[in-house]
Design brief:
There is one protein chain. This protein is about 85% helix and about 0% strand. It has one domain. The protein is mostly helical.
C-alpha cells in the first residue's frame, strides 16, 4: 500500500515539476527584462535538479543525484558570473 502511494506521489511530483519547467522556459524566452530572464534560468536549473532527484528515487539509481550535485555547482557559478557581467558590463 505505501509503495503505491509513493509511486503516485513521485510520478505526480515529476509531472508537476516538468510543467513548471515549461512555464519557466517561457519566462526565460519571453521575459520583460534581463533580470526576469536570469531568475527564470536559475529557476529552470533548480527545477531540473529536482527532476534529477525524483528520477533517482523512481529508478533507484543514485547516479542521478551525483549529476544533480554537479549541475548545482555549475548553476550557482554561472548565475553569479552572469549577474556580475550584467551589473558591471565586464566579466571579472
Amino acid at each position: 500500500m505505501t509503495q503505491q502511494i509513493l509511486f503516485f506521489v513521485l510520478h505526480g511530483s515529476l509531472i508537476i515539476h516538468l510543467g513548471l519547467i515549461v512555464v519557466c522556459v517561457w519566462r526565460v524566452w519571453r521575459g520583460e527584462n534581463v533580470i526576469d530572464r536570469i531568475i527564470g534560468a536559475d529557476l529552470v536549473s533548480t527545477l531540473i535538479l529536482a527532476v534529477l532527484v525524483l528520477v533517482a528515487l523512481i529508478w533507484l539509481n543514485p547516479t542521478y543525484i551525483d549529476v544533480a550535485l554537479g549541475l548545482a555547482g555549475l548553476s550557482f557559478v554561472g548565475t553569479i558570473a552572469l549577474t556580475k557581467y550584467i551589473a558591471d558590463q565586464q566579466l571579472f
